[in-house]
């Protein structure tokens, strides 16, 4: 485990001792009590020592816990001083930031900024995991999550809205040449659909045409939880696809895909940045958060 993660655990442990309970510490740190307790258990495993004697009414420090508590206090003071120093020189920021990102964001939105990030922060490394899976930023080992959704459910996570991600209805010339006419929302029902399976249930498209909008339920010819699979199938003539415009701009320019611009996305996706709330946010995470929060500007 990196030293930056150990410092996080020490600060959580100190908060638990100060509050005399996991629940109170969780409220102070904006974390769930279960997550706080898990972090203290991880710290005990790393140090190979019991730090707390737990009872139904209170927590008591062991001898090792008392020493750990004193160390945690020193760490908090040193981190504050270090934060002030590092803010004056970006090249001193170091460590690893764990990022989870869906594929539609990873390739066309995040990746073009990675080289510039490394130039600005040469000692700060990124561990990027590309996944369509819903990642729980509060309870999984990740620092920053990019999420593209219609809306976020209530959450205690820290959230920053980055950009809108409108989708477009598109298809290849070959498909449109032989397919039924598609002039109205009702016409969409008769078409083969290449459907993204990671967002909607039942799988439908919410479209707008002029002043009219409604849910289209086309015939699903292919469903996948990866938009790039659907894009390739659309280019090959397999059917209509409703995809984020950002990932099909090259195909639109070359004519491989045709934008059916009589239809609009009636419920566009929004790109959010999420992280777990922490009373003492590591500089490495704060630095990456501030950098990537500007992607939509």
Any idea what the CATH superfamily of the largest domain is called?
Periplasmic binding protein-like II
Helix content: 25-40%
Gyration radius (Cα, Å) is 24 Å
Shape: elongated
N-to-C terminal Cα separation, in Å? Answer: 35 Å
Regions with little confidence, pLDDT below 50 for 5+ residues = none
CATH architecture group name of the largest domain:
3-Layer(aba) Sandwich
Might you state the CATH topology name of the largest domain? Answer: D-Maltodextrin-Binding Protein, domain 2
CATH class of the largest domain: Alpha Beta
Structural topology:
Layout: H1 3-19, H2 22-29, H3 33-47, E1 52-54, E2 59-61, H4 63-86, E3 95-101, H5 103-110, H6 114-120, E4 124-130, E5 144-149, E6 158-165, E7 167-171, H7 173-178, H8 185-188, E8 192-196, E9 205-209, E10 212-216, E11 219-224, H9 227-235, E12 240-244, H10 249-254, E13 258-259, E14 264-265, E15 269-275, H11 283-292
Parallel strand pairs: 3-4, 3-5, 8-11, 8-12
Antiparallel strand pairs: 1-2, 5-15, 6-15, 7-12, 7-13, 9-10, 9-14
Helix pairs in contact: 1-2, 1-3, 1-4, 2-3
